[in-house]
C-alpha cells in the first residue's frame, strides 16, 4: 500500500530502525527492491530523481511504482521524489501521485549554486504548505553534500553543488537545523556530514575527520523529534569494484560509507538512508562478469537477471543491517 514518508518514518523512529531509500529508473531495480522487501518483510521507500524522469519518462516511472504496489500489496511503499529543485517540480510530482517529495533548497533552482538560508526557508515552506494540503510529506535539506577532503560535491550529473564548498557549508549546523525545522515544518531533514553522491566519496576508508557521524549526534540531540536523512549513503562495496575491474572495467580506488557507520547514524535519528550507487555498481559488475563468461549469450534477460539478483542481495543486506527487516 502507498503511504506517506511521515507515516513510515514515525514508525521507524518509534521502533529505532532506518529505511533505505533506493533510487529507481527501471523494472530490474524495482523488482530487486520489492523482492528483497518481501523476503525480509521490510517497508520500502523508492525514489525517482530528475534523471530518472528523463530516462524513463514520468508516466513509466509512475506506473512502474504503482505496479510494484499492486504486485506486493502487503508491503508499505513510499513513492518519493528525490532532489526537487523548486516548489513547481514538487507540485508536478504531487499531481503524479507521489506520497512524498524532497524540496532541496540547499541549492538554487539550477541544482548547482549553493542557496542562501533565507531562500531555502522560503522555497521549503512553500513546498510544505502545498504538500501538506494534499497529505504528502516533505523532506528538506540543510547544508551541502560534499567531501570534507576536497570540498567537492559528488560525481552525479545534475545533482550537486558546483565549485569548492567551505567547511561550514559541508556540515549542517545544529542550531540552524532547529530553526529551519521549526520555520518550515518539514517531515524529514537531510543533513550534510561529509558524504557525497556517487562512487567517489572518500580516498581512504573514512575516519571521523572526513565522515562526521558526531555531527549527526549533535543535530539529533538538538532536534530529537526530527527524522534525519542521510544522502550519499552508498557503501561502495570493494568486492563489486573488484569484479568490475576484473572484467574490463576501470574504476580507481575509492571508498563509501561503511554500513556500521550508517547504523551508528540510525542510533542517532537517521531514519531514511539514500542509496543509488551501490545498486549501480552491483548491476554493472554482475553484467560485466556474465557477458565476459558467456560471450555467445545475447538474450538481455539473461544479464538483466544476474544484475537484478546482485541488486536484490544488496537490498536484503541493507534491510537487515538497518533493522528495516520485519517491520513491513
Ligand atoms: O541524488 C542522486 C541520485 O543518485 C540520482 O542520480 O540524477 O543520475 O538519477 P541521477
Ligand atoms: P549514493 O550516490 O551514495 O548512492 O547516494 C544516493 C542519494 O543520495 C540519492 O539522493
Ligand atoms: Na530524497
Ligand atoms: Zn541525494
UniProtKB/TrEMBL annotation:
Superkingdom per UniProt: Bacteria
EC number, UniProt record: 4.1.2.13
Cofactor dependence: Zn(2+)
A Pfam family per the record: F_bP_aldolase
Keywords linked to the UniProt accession: Glycolysis, Lyase, Metal-binding, Zinc
Catalysed reactions listed for this entry: beta-D-fructose 1,6-bisphosphate = D-glyceraldehyde 3-phosphate + dihydroxyacetone phosphate
InterPro entries: Aldolase_TIM, Class_II_FBP_aldolase, FBA_II, Fruct_bisP_Calv
Keyword Zinc: yes
Molecular function, one GO term: fructose-bisphosphate aldolase activity
PROSITE patterns: ALDOLASE_CLASS_II_1, ALDOLASE_CLASS_II_2
EC class: lyase
Cofactor info, note text: One is catalytic and the other provides a structural contribution.
Pathway the protein acts in: Carbohydrate degradation; glycolysis; D-glyceraldehyde 3-phosphate and glycerone phosphate from D-glucose: step 4/4
Family label: Belongs to the class II fructose-bisphosphate aldolase family.
Main function: Catalyzes the aldol condensation of dihydroxyacetone phosphate (DHAP or glycerone-phosphate) with glyceraldehyde 3-phosphate (G3P) to form fructose 1,6-bisphosphate (FBP) in gluconeogenesis and the reverse reaction in glycolysis.
Protein name, as recorded: Fructose-1,6-bisphosphate aldolase
Organism for this UniProt entry: Microbulbifer taiwanensis
Source species taxonomy: Bacteria, Pseudomonadati, Pseudomonadota, Gammaproteobacteria, Cellvibrionales
